[in-house]
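4.2 Preliminary Data

To establish feasibility before requesting continued support, the project team ran the inverse folding procedure on a target of 569 residues. The structure was first converted into the token representation described in Section 3, and no sequence information of any kind was made available to the design step. The complete token record follows.
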């Protein structure tokens, strides 16, 4: 009999649904306003914009959601001292659950900006509330409840693309396969959808999208909203990987107004890491997504605005040098302005030079090895190309999920490019076969589905042909700097951003050839390509930003980094 894994709502119920003391509620009153609701009245409806944190002062509120077949499922009932909300309420994003007054209710409503102020002003209480908001989101993620429903075949490339996008943004969602799920068939008939138009996405606000792009989907579910074109932020950060998120956390916590833009999701490359074992303070390792989700929530707690997904396509070259602002143009024709700019756009995976690769990307060729991909390959043989640490981590993870991993390496020795601990671990895995001095020579299949892979060992006339349906590529990265073309920011010969003395101009550390524009993390020429290095540079750049912003205001920076030492300007 299969073992039922208890949900977070069951194992950590006391932390997910705490009851506040009357004295604590008294202290919270200054952050909100009291509202009354009649019995039966809705306090929240899935898909509607959230009002903030709702603390029940009297009465009872029923929290429910709809399951895949549209049935109402009770989650929890809140009485006096309980509070209603989850992570979406930090920024007033749409509700993921329904809430109705069971009897007449009085509630204290704390709007998102005041909630963030409360979390900072009330450290211990803030920690308990923040933990509850995170656990509630995790509970919703476990069930997928409250989010959009993707309907399409489980192995369809667009289904994987949309599910991957929502998973990387920690947004609950459900998937229904019309070949397996009765509800999917019913929904397809109800909405008169031709099977050729799949996948479709049903959004919580009732809208139906046909094979949408990520930005269209994000807008529909309220993940991202329009940017105020008149607002000038202290700093705009391009990229929400470890470098960008670190800059955001330090900027937000030190009182700067910050906007972070990312074209994909938070976490960057680190979000793709199955297990980061060399990040300080995590002796048993941590998944990249878990580490990055913490940083993302932390930045939002400090009031940083997130525009994800939003792609920056250019940085205006000139503008009025006296108005002291940088203008970013986005792919959706919006603009964002800031007094200082941090480039943290990192690097993107390199693609294999083999014919037909594009045809198989999505369903059969993968650049991530997450549980989503692992489920697709369960019990099968897979091939993985790469010899760096990211390839090593993915191999170790996949070996625990699949029948066999063929690790294809161009060089003569794994140890030349991979950390010793990973080389040793791979050597101990019975279902991994390492093929050195070998290259993929061909891909075979049809309709986007791979059926076989061919490879050849250097100097060997024989080409191996193996029936493998999934190919993983971890072959390094190139800088994401196309958007800087024409901006006046100087790059090195490989396209990485030059900073400091490398610009051959008088610049602060991490400052690019354009004063007031900084570069941190993997995108920076000469940077150490590690999470810790990216995070360190994110912290360092904020200290310099204070000096730049103060200079722009004609002041001197007064942020103190250590007793008696001022931030270098
Ligand atoms: C699978 C894998 C495993 C790894 N494991 C480890 C490990 O165990 N330990 C370790 O120390 N390091 C590891 N690394 C390396 C580490 O992840 C990187 O060094 C780190 O993520 C770099 O951070 P970053 O913020 O500079 O850039 P990135 O992580 O690359 O983030 C850049 C972000 O910018 C966004 N972006 C790019 N262009 C634009 C644009 N025009 N507009 C808006 N947004 C844009 C991207 O979408 C991305 O989210 C691993 C990398 C991979 C791929």
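Position-by-position output of the design step:
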């Amino acid at each position: 009999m299969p073992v039922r894994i208890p949900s977070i709502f069951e194992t950590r119920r006391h932390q997910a649904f705490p009851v506040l003391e009357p004295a604590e509620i008294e202290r919270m009153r200054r952050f909100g306003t009291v509202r009354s609701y009649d019995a039966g009245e809705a306090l929240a409806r899935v898909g509607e914009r959230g009002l903030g944190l709702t603390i029940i002062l009297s009465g009872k509120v029923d929290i429910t959601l709809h399951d895949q077949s549209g049935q109402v499922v009770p989650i929890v009932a809140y009485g006096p001292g309980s509070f209603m909300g989850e992570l979406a309420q930090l920024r007033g994003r749409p509700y993921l659950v329904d809430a109705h007054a069971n009897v007449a209710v009085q509630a204290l409503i704390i709007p998102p900006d005041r909630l963030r102020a409360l979390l900072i002003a009330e450290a211990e209480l803030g920690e308990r509330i923040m933990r509850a908001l995170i656990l509630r989101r995790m509970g919703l993620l476990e069930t997928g409840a409250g989010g959009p429903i993707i309907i399409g075949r489980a192995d369809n490339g667009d289904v994987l693309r949309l599910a991957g996008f929502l998973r990387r943004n920690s947004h609950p969602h459900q998937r229904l396969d019309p070949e397996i799920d009765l509800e999917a068939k019913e929904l397809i008939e109800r909405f008169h959808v031709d099977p050729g138009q799949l996948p479709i996405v049903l959004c919580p606000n009732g809208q139906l999208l046909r094979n949408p792009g990520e930005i269209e989907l994000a807008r529909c579910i309220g993940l991202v909203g329009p940017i105020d074109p008149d607002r000038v932020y202290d700093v705009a950060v391009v990229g929400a990987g470890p470098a960008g998120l670190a800059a955001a956390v330090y900027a937000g916590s030190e009182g700067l107004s910050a906007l972070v833009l990312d074209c994909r999701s938070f976490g960057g490359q680190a979000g793709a890491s199955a297990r980061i074992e060399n990040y300080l303070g995590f002796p048993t390792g941590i998944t990249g997504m878990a580490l990055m989700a913490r940083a993302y929530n932390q930045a939002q707690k400090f009031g940083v605005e997130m525009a994800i997904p939003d792609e920056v396509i250019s940085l205006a070259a000139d503008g009025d040098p006296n108005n002291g602002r940088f203008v970013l143009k986005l792919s959706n024709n919006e603009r964002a302005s800031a007094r200082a700019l941090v480039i943290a756009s990192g690097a993107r995976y390199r693609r294999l030079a083999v014919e037909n690769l594009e045809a198989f990307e999505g369903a059969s060729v993968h650049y991530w090895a997450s549980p989503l991909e692992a489920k697709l390959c369960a019990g099968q043989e897979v091939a993985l190309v790469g010899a760096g640490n990211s390839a090593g981590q993915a191999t170790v993870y996949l070996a625990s999920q699949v029948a066999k991993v063929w690790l294809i390496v161009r060089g003569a020795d794994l140890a030349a490019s991979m950390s010793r601990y990973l080389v040793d671990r791979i050597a101990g895995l019975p279902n991994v076969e390492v093929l050195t001095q070998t290259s993929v020579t061909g891909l075979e299949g049809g309709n986007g589905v791979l059926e076989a892979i061919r490879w050849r060992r250097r100097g060997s006339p024989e080409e191996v042909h193996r029936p493998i349906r999934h190919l993983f590529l971890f072959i390094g990265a190139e800088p994401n700097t196309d958007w800087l073309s024409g901006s006046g920011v100087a790059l090195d010969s490989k396209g990485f951003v030059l900073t400091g003395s490398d610009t051959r101009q008088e610049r602060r550390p991490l400052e690019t050839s354009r004063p007031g524009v900084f570069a941190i993390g993997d995108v920076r020429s000469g940077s150490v390509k590690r999470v810790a290095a990216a995070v360190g540079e994110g912290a360092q750049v904020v200290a310099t930003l204070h000096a730049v912003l103060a200079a722009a205001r004609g002041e001197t920076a007064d942020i103190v980094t250590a007793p008696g030492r001022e931030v270098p300007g």
